[in-house]
């Protein structure tokens, strides 16, 4: 068996949930065989969220593995990048020397990562570094199922429509709650202008349709009176996160979770203030939604 031969230990075990599978036996300490990579890629498309257990890898290896799926994106809040790793965003509620070491309220509202960019994220990888004894779960909602289950009248109300996504949609509200959130510079604001995205998108690799609006970033449906747009979005937000579409991930030490932002929305379930939580996130650039 050569160093990069097919791993016989690699197992993919689907969860009894609306999305998700566990990956056991992935060894990233040696080059990943093409056949193993192909199995992981296929499982990611089939299950939309993969949980890799016992990943004792440094950030550079997370970056390298993420790059197998496409170019990496850097978050506009570059002050929360891991020192020496501009493509790794630290997600943490920990303060050191009176300063937050990471983005403590990432995922406070349901969203799909970087949907406010012309080319939103294909997927994101989150690697646990320090976990709280309680809380700190991440929830994932399957937007293919949400689309499939949408009542016909709502489907025809949104088909062919576009909505505006804007990074600043909830920024001031979050800043009020969390004063450590930095004032954005003009250059940061200019880097994230509002973009128009389809309300229902087609997954470029599997061809399935998915709802693509979120409480965190969608401001309005275009070419619709404001009150109608608000009412429609409220209905879509409530529908898209119904319990029957949701998998709740309860983190275990060493977990690295890789989800498909073209298929899912996610939400940070919340961590008690007195408990420490720290994870490293990479995001992979996707296509222009259609
Ligand atoms: C995120 O939105 O990427 C963070 C999710 C989490 O912290 O659970």
UniProtKB/TrEMBL annotation:
**InterPro entries assigned to the protein according to its UniProt record, in alphabetical order:** TauD-like_sf, TauD/TfdA-like, TfdA_dioxygenase
Which UniProt keywords are present, listed alphabetically?
Dioxygenase, Iron, Metal-binding, Oxidoreductase
Q: Which residues form the TauD/TfdA-like domain?
A: 12-283
For molecular function, the Gene Ontology terms on record are:
2-oxoglutarate-dependent dioxygenase activity; metal ion binding
Q: Which family is it part of?
A: Belongs to the TfdA dioxygenase family.
Protein name (database record): TauD/TfdA family dioxygenase
Q: Which organism encodes this protein?
A: Scleromatobacter humisilvae
